[in-house]
Design goal:
12 helices, about 425 residues, about 40% helix, five-stranded parallel β-sheet, alpha/beta, about 5% strand
């Protein structure tokens, strides 16, 4: 019996071995995406696939995810590159509203430029600009109601200008002096603005997506007329928080607007390592959430898409998932050197233009603006920023203070300080007195 088994065993081993060798021949190496161009290469971006007016604007009160397939794979635009607005997504804003949006964007850009200069001269420890992305937070926040919650990422500080925050207060936070409203507990540019319902930025980016859904669920549970808006970058959309948020948004239908800002780079990692889908917007369709892809340098399109999403939320229809297609024109932060991982002239090949120039050009095209008025506004705002900085440093500067009291380690966390923290606080005071 034992001898009779040997041929079949050998035959089995031979067959398994042959199959294993065949599998090895067919096996491919792990696919690791790489950036399509690096320093020294010529950058090349996909052309915009839609012209203004190509895509329909469905009824926000009845729209379901399946109705937005074309919107998720196309690109909603209102402005062409000659300054003309057209199509069903044109929000028909008044010239005054357009000028207000332009002024907010110019203020954000000049504020960023001045703050970066201050960082380079040692007056700030760290800074992050919104260069090329100013329209996103400003247009989208202008489309919201004042009671709506804002869960930002790094490049949405412009929402605070829309909500009326003073530049002096913002600079005091970045310096970390005694007037810092966060009392030194957060990094510079990790703003928080309670009066404007602007929630503090989270350094482990991505968490704001699930947190925003939670706040929207709370508003829904309480029956309040509130919506929540949040943003993450294309890189952060590869994290778990993105999927947790989409799943809860799909199941519970809270009034939340979930934005992926596809600005092409997550620090030094290209967007193609974050998703294998044709567009970031289309990923939300699998969760049965309506999805839209919008031109992130088109102020009017951003405003209109956000207003549409807010109308859906108010009608009790739940979440909207948006991809904002834009370009990060500057470095990731003051600590980053983009010349190490992308072509130095890459910005020249971006097909979406500049958001400030496009809105200014539209106002000029309709006879409501001029180059002279643009220059006058820029000079006025630059003076306002410098005056705000001079006032901010009267409360203390980075090098010399005064800084927030060490007591703030123990305050503003518990209504009543627990005994074990009180002991530590008392000990700190004894050491300070000695």
């Amino acid at each position: 019996m034992r001898r009779g088994c040997r041929p079949s065993i050998k035959r089995y081993e031979r067959v398994v071995g042959e199959r294993s060798m065949a599998a090895k021949k067919k096996q491919k190496s792990l696919q690791i995406p790489t950036a399509p161009f690096r320093p020294g290469d010529e950058a090349s971006f996909d052309p915009f696939v839609n012209e203004p007016g190509d895509l329909p604007r469905p009824d926000p009160a009845t729209c379901v995810a399946a109705d937005t397939t074309d919107l998720a794979n196309g690109l909603v635009r209102v402005l062409d590159f000659k300054g003309n607005a057209s199509g069903p997504w044109d929000p028909q804003l008044t010239p005054d509203e357009l000028r207000q949006g332009l002024e907010h964007m110019v203020r954000m850009r000049i504020f960023d430029e001045r703050m970066m200069k201050m960082q380079r001269t040692g007056k700030l420890s760290f800074y992050m600009r919104s260069l090329g992305e100013e329209a996103i937070a400003i247009a989208q926040t202008m489309a919201l109601e004042t009671q709506d919650w804002i869960f930002p990422s790094y490049r949405q500080p412009g929402a605070q200008f829309v909500r009326g925050r003073d530049m002096v207060s913002m600079i005091c936070h970045c310096i970390g002096n005694v007037e810092d409203n966060i009392k030194g507990r957060q990094m510079p540019v990790h703003y928080s603005y309670k009066e404007g319902r602007f929630i503090s930025i989270s350094s482990p980016v991505g968490t704001q997506f699930s947190q925003a859904v939670g706040v929207a669920m709370a508003s829904q549970y309480k029956g309040l007329d509130e919506a929540t808006i949040t943003w993450i970058g294309d890189g952060a959309s590869a994290e778990g928080d993105y999927h947790y948020a989409l799943n809860f948004a799909s199941v519970f239908k809270p009034p939340v607007i979930l934005n992926i800002v596809n600005n092409q780079w997550a620090i030094s990692t290209h967007r193609n390592i974050a998703s294998g889908s044709p567009t970031f917007a289309a990923r939300g369709l699998a969760y049965n959430v309506p999805c839209i892809r919008v031109d992130g340098n088109d102020f009017l399109a951003l405003y209109s898409v956000t207003k549409w999403a807010r109308e859906r939320a108010a009608a009790g229809e739940g979440a909207t998932h948006i991809e904002v297609l834009t370009y990060r024109a500057g470095a990731h932060s003051s600590s980053d050197d983009p010349s190490r991982y992308r072509p130095g002239d890459e910005a020249e090949f971006w097909p979406g233009g500049d958001p400030v120039d496009r809105l200014s050009g539209h106002l000029i095209a309709i006879g409501e603006w001029s180059d002279e008025r643009q220059t006058e506004m820029e000079e006025r705002i630059d003076g306002e920023v410098m005056a705000a900085y001079k006032e901010a440093v009267t409360h203390g500067d980075l090098a010399n203070g005064p800084y927030p009291s060490a007591d703030t380690i123990f305050t503003e966390v518990y209504e009543t300080v627990p005994w074990h923290l009180q002991e530590q606080w008392d000990e700190m005071k004894r050491w300070s007195n000695d």
